[in-house]
Amino acid sequence: MFMRKRVGFSIAVALLSLNIQHAAYADEANTQAEPYDPEARLEALNITLPVPPTPVANYVNGVRTGNLIFLAGKGPKRADGTEITGKLGADVSIEEGYEGARLTAINQLAVLKDMLGDLDRVTRVVKVLGMVNSDPEFVDQPAVINGFSDLIVDVFGERGRHARAAVGMASLPRGQAVEIEMIVEVRD
After folding, report:
1. Which SS3 state, helix, strand or coil, does residue 74 take?
2. CB 133 within 8 A of CB 88
3. CA–CA separation, 145 vs 185, rounded Å?
4. Is 161 found in the same domain as 80?
5. Is the per-residue pLDDT at 23 higher than 90?
6. Any idea what the Cα angle at residue 125 is, between residues 96 and 143, rounded to 5°?
7. pTM for the full model?
8. Mean pLDDT of 94-119
């Protein structure tokens, strides 16, 4: 009798586990099915995407392999060609760094739009690497890179939530305040 109850309990636990896993997959499927229009969202945010920044060395803005696009690092270049430069914790405030990261997100979206033709083809923002030109004592890199992440989530909703690293660097090209890479999943 005890053995039958134990087997019955084990089966119940296994079924409960399967139900929990199914619910998790259903939540993921619902996130993927969530309707969104990133182009309309940009318009609502009053953001016009610039012409994608030209690579400054021997590389390309992005590489697609399968359903993933790996975007090269971009910085906070304004439409007039000037950049937000300086070191966080020395001559650039967290607020200025946040705006630089937000501007970098706009530049990365411009590259994606150029590569895909329509941002609606993005199914998931997978990973972001945020590099912050930091004074050695500066430790608030995540607060700076939030400027990038916040805009990406504003544009893509749940599909924009991503894994991320926000790290400090001793220097960045041309003294730019931030440089950010991104990996996105896309559909045809």
Report:
1. strand
2. yes
3. 21
4. yes
5. no
6. 25
7. 0.82
8. 98
